[in-house]
Design brief:
Order of helices and strands: HEEEEEEEHEH
Structural class: alpha/beta
Number of helices: 3
Radius of gyration: 26 Å
Strand content: 25-35%
Helix content: 25-40%
Largest sheet: 5 strands, mixed, barrel
Length: 233
Amino acid sequence: MKIVNFKPGKKVTVFFVFFACTFFILGLWQIERGQAKSKIIAQFNSNLKEDASYISDTSIKWDRVLVDGEWDGAEQILIDNVINSGIAGYKVLTPLKIKSSDRYILVDRGWIAQKEFRNDLPNIDIENITASVKGILEDPELGFVLSDELVTDTWPKVSQTKNVTVLLKEYDQKFLPFVLVADPTLRNSLEYVRITPSTMMPIKHYGYSAQWFTMWLAICLMYLWIGFKKNEE
């Protein structure tokens, strides 16, 4: 009876161990990301059903809150490159001075279409009147940007990002570190665009995980095939 020994060789083994571990770890990482996104989405959907409570120092991202204050229409920001129903436009962020406070919060009043020429900005004027705003607190990530010049110089300013850290550098006033996405029932709201708590859904992460584990399985089979094949030769 012929005994078949497994001898893949030292170099092949080192190659296999490195890539097999890498593929397996990446597969587990994508599963963890998918589970984390599922929790975020579940929390977000749960918050949407809750009644709004007055904003406070303990308020966190995705909380439904209520803010009383006064609009400051002189220093608004338009978030560029926001596509709605296939049409290019802007999200409009307007400062709201919080009642009985020296602090402000940026309010996302909704979406407005871009005009024919990009240097011709849409009319986003708003009276500096008192308002009661309900909505969801958002803390947008910086995302992928192509330039260091993210915000234009003159008001209303146009920004390439909705990231709060970037936007608040344009103001001298004290702001809360969130964007308040106003409910569509707001009197001064523009076209409402539904919030998505994540740009990538859990199912996509699980799909990537399956791809990494498939590659891990393929390299394991290849390693076995090379080890036995070399012995035959």
